[in-house]
Amino acid sequence: MVDQALLEIGSDNSLLLVDDDEVFLKRLAKAMEKRGFAVETAESVAAGRAIATARPPAYAVVDLRLDDGNGLDVVEVLQDKREDCRVVILTGYGAIATAVAAVKAGATDYLAKPADAQDIVNALLSERGELPPPPENPMSADRVRWEHIQRIYELCDRNVSETARRLNMHRRTLQRILAKRSPR
């Protein structure tokens, strides 16, 4: 599969990854390097904009919500500096309105977190207007639900009561879910 990806990437394999989740960013960078990309990373809108201005990449994967602002600001700079840049927006806050805004700003695709590295590559390399192939091993609905609950739990600083309130569920139900192992 790596050889196929190398053929599809082309001669300019520069890739900008912008995400404020340091662990995810490092893991994704390593996975994309294995697939033939020359990766540069940024953990903020400011850093992403600086790289996009100085060295506009051929490809970019940008988180929608970053600590210092909106990832769409990086997408706008990328489109100004390099119109042919293929951009994929990643977000844990999937909504139709933000997907539309991302595409209008110039994004090629919009994927919900957690996204598999191969799904990201497929989205980056798909032709405009062409849908990438469906994932080989998509997460189960139970796993997606569990990931979402875990993410909200972490964002609420592991406060069960606040997480339950935000998820609109009973606190005891949430405690039972958190006590279980993650589904496959």
Structural notes for this entry:
The protein has nine helices and seven strands, in the order H-E-H-E-H-E-E-E-H-E-H-E-H-H-H-H. With 184 residues, it is α/β, with parallel strands linked by helices. It folds into two domains: 2-125, Rossmann fold; 141-179, Arc Repressor Mutant, subunit A (Orthogonal Bundle). The strands form two sheets. It has a five-stranded parallel sheet, with helices on both faces. Strands 4-5 form a two-stranded antiparallel ribbon. The longest helix has 15 residues, at 141-155.
Write a brief caption for the model.
By secondary structure, the protein is an alpha/beta fold. It has helices spanning 2-9, 22-34, 45-54, 72-81, 96-105, 117-125, 141-155, 160-167, 171-179; strands at residues 14-18, 38-42, 59-63, 65-66, 69-70, 86-91, 109-112. It is globular.
Keywords, separated by commas or semicolons:
globular, activator, disordered N terminus, two-stranded antiparallel sheet, single chain, five-stranded parallel β-sheet, phosphoprotein, Sig_transdc_resp-reg_receiver, Rossmann fold, Arc Repressor Mutant, subunit A
Secondary-structure element string: HEHEHEEEHEHEHHHH
- The helix tally amounts to 9
The major β-sheet equals: 5 strands, parallel
CATH architecture of the largest domain: 3-Layer(aba) Sandwich
The CATH class label of the largest domain is: Alpha Beta
Percentage of residues in helical conformation: 40-55%
- Mean pLDDT equals 84
User: Given the C-alpha coordinates, what overall shape results?
Assistant: globular
Q: Indicate how many domains the architecture comprises.
A: 2
Give the name of the CATH superfamily of the largest domain: Response regulator
Strand order of the largest sheet: 2-1-3-6-7
What would you call the structural class? alpha/beta
Rounded to the nearest angstrom, the radius of gyration is: 17 Å
For the record, give the distance between the C-alpha atoms at the N and C termini, rounded to a whole number.
25 Å
Would you report the number of β strands? 7
User: What fold name goes in the CATH topology slot of the largest domain?
Assistant: Rossmann fold
